[in-house]
């Protein structure tokens, strides 16, 4: 404690000398103020200012004034020596950079001799750090993605789950990271994790898949090649699965169809004509969950907008007409509830939009056949 007070006094004297100020006493300390929250839980400080404010705020004003007067009587040479000491001490107190923290976490994660708790903690730290786009890019330079992808095959589901979560976070809206992670073969492993009996593992794997291929044509093509339509169809057809998996699957389908619409020069894929997948999407509209209904309608709308969509498949095999009518009646019931009325009204607007798009496309096909 005494050392920190002395550092604070020296810092104040140095600042005063630089600015030509002669008074550094208790009154000045009051002006600077204090903030006990600046103190780091591990005993470090996030900045010099944080340390200065903490030391002043925890000091006795009389002692601070006395030491300030002593410091002011120091010669320039003595002050210079103290400044050097201060620099050296601050280097020791300095917080590690994000890159250093990531390297520590990666090394811990890669050390199989460490207990599981250390691996879990390392993954938790990486999950926070990779939210910053530059940190996510730097993680590859540290060998982090290779280590994380190896953990996708770990014997413990919670480690696999956490590793998938970190990869998903790092890949979000980050084409540089998407490319790196795809090249390391993560997509195949994540798709394999979708068959897990652990719900959280499947949820985080699907989150990572979506983040990895969003707005990434190479990733999307790889997903198509690896029968991504079958994977999503199996999810949507299984009513026993967690509803989050159904929602994330529909959101991904809608996103893929939107990407196809935005890239008109790309070859349209058979993914969007998988009749079992389309039927599972239409059946999802029967859910009592408004959010799921909305996601199903949005995905269907985007697919109907594609040039290659086989609208007769929606009519004859998926029975979209009947499904839209059932959904209309269900939404009317939701509108009776004050808490659901506004949301149900929005979903009904989307339902009408889907119906209109469907009927217009169906009419074009009928006219062409005449």
TrEMBL record:
Signal sequence, renumbered to the chain: 1-20
Keywords attached to this Swiss-Prot or TrEMBL record, sorted alphabetically, are: Signal
Kindly give the InterPro entries that the UniProt entry links to this protein: ARM-like, ARM-type_fold, Hsp70_NEF-Inhibitors, Nucleotide_exch_fac_Fes1
Q: Where is the Nucleotide exchange factor Fes1 domain?
A: 48-139
Any Gene Ontology CC annotation: endoplasmic reticulum
Q: Which Gene Ontology molecular function entries are recorded, alphabetically?
A: adenyl-nucleotide exchange factor activity
| PANTHER family xref list | ARM REPEAT SUPERFAMILY PROTEIN (PTHR19316:SF32), PROTEIN FOLDING REGULATOR (PTHR19316)
Q: Output this protein's name.
A: Nucleotide exchange factor Fes1 domain-containing protein
Species of origin:
Anisodus acutangulus
């Amino acid at each position: 404690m005494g050392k920190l007070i002395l550092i604070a006094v020296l810092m104040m004297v140095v600042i005063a000398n630089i600015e030509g100020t002669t008074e550094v006493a208790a009154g000045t300390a009051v002006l600077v103020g204090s903030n006990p929250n600046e103190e780091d839980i591990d005993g470090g400080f996030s900045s010099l200012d944080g340390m200065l404010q903490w030391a002043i705020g925890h000091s006795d004003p009389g002692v601070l004034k006395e030491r300030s007067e002593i410091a002011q009587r120091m010669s320039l040479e003595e002050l210079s020596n103290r400044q050097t000491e201060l620099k050296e001490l601050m280097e020791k107190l300095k917080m590690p950079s994000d890159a250093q923290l990531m390297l520590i976490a990666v090394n811990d994660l890669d050390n199989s001799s460490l207990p599981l708790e250390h691996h879990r903690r390392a993954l938790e730290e990486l999950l926070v750090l990779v939210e910053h786009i530059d940190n996510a890019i730097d993680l590859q330079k540290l060998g982090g993605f290779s280590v994380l992808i190896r953990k996708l095959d770990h014997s413990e589901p919670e480690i696999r789950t956490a590793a998938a979560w970190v990869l998903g976070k790092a890949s979000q809206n980050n084409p540089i990271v998407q490319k790196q992670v795809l090249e390391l073969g993560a997509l195949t492993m994540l798709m394999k994790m979708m068959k897990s009996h652990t719900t959280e593992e499947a949820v985080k794997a699907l989150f990572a898949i979506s983040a990895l291929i969003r707005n990434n044509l190479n990733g999307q093509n790889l997903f198509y090649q690896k029968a991504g339509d079958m994977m999503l169809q199996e999810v949507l057809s299984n009513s026993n699965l967690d509803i989050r998996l159904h929602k994330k699957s529909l959101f991904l389908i809608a996103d893929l169809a939107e990407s196809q619409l935005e890239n008109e020069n790309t070859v349209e894929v058979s993914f969007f004509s998988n009749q079992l997948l389309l039927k599972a999407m239409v059946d999802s509209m029967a859910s009592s969950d408004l959010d799921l209904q909305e996601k199903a309608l949005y995905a269907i709308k985007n697919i109907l907008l594609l040039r290659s969509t086989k609208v007769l498949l929606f009519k004859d095999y998926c029975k979209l007409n009947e499904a839209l009518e059932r959904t209309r009646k269900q939404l009317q019931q939701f509108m009776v509830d004050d808490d659901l009325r506004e949301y149900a009204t929005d979903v009904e607007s989307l339902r009408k939009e889907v119906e209109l798009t469907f009927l217009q496309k169906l009419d074009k096909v009928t006219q062409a056949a005449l």
